[in-house]
Amino acid sequence: MSPNERISLFLDRVCAHLLWPPYRARVRRELTDHLLTRVEYLQNDRGFSEAEAVELAVRMLGDPDALGRSLRHARFPPRYLCCLIATGLVWAAIAACAVYLLLQLQI
To answer: How far is 55 from 51, CA to CA, in rounded Å?
Structure first.
């Protein structure tokens, strides 16, 4: 497997957990930049070959599935989603009451 394929596979596994496409693209760009910077450092300053540097840089980021889940929860924590849904329901109830009152006043 080439170094670029290794990085691409890692990023695919991380981004598979991210549901919102703009967020997924941003995370992919940032992780790519981070990985390439670390690979360059390992090659130039530590003397690793490209394949070794890529493998080490990917391992340093940890499990891609755990990273993807953490990034998803950091962007959309469950408490935030519950509050968002509750707010939407309250506004829907207010709108329903307003429509009901308008219909009653027209009679």
So the answer is: 6
The whole model's pTM is what? 0.71
CA dist., res. 10 & res. 61, Å (int): 10
Q: Kindly tell me the number of DSSP H helices and DSSP E strands found in the chain.
A: 5, 0
DSSP letter at 20 equals S
The overall average pLDDT reported for the chain is 91
- pLDDT tens digits, residue range 67-79? 999 998 887 767 7
| Contact residues for 11 (Cβ-Cβ < 8 A; gap 6+) | 28, 31, 32, 64
Distance of CA 17 to the CA centre of its chain: 7
